[in-house]
Amino acid sequence: MRVAVPHNLPKEEVRRRLRERSGEIANFMPGGMAQVQTGWVDEDRMNLTVGAMGAEVRGDVLIEEGQVIFQVTLPAMLSFMEPAVAKAIEAGGQKLLTKQ
Hints:
By secondary structure, the protein is α+β, with helices and mostly antiparallel strands. The protein has a single domain (2-97), classed as TATA-Binding Protein (2-Layer Sandwich), CATH 3.30.310. Helices cover 27% and strands 38% of the residues. It has two helices and five strands, in the order βαββββα.
């Protein structure tokens, strides 16, 4: 699944916000019972692992000019939740990028 979140920020500011606020990602998951681990592969790519409801979901966050791309692979048993997860990613991504 690929979810694009548009932004009007310089890439440096997107990086800063994601680094500072990545701990908030668990709050955006449906059910609120997720454990999230993040790591930076390079300056424009953060990987993440989300554990929830006995399943583990892996993904990447790619920082581009004008958008942040969330690429997530859902296990087959959670594929029915794809629309809800995509909506949560979009809303959560916007919140992460919003100035606080």
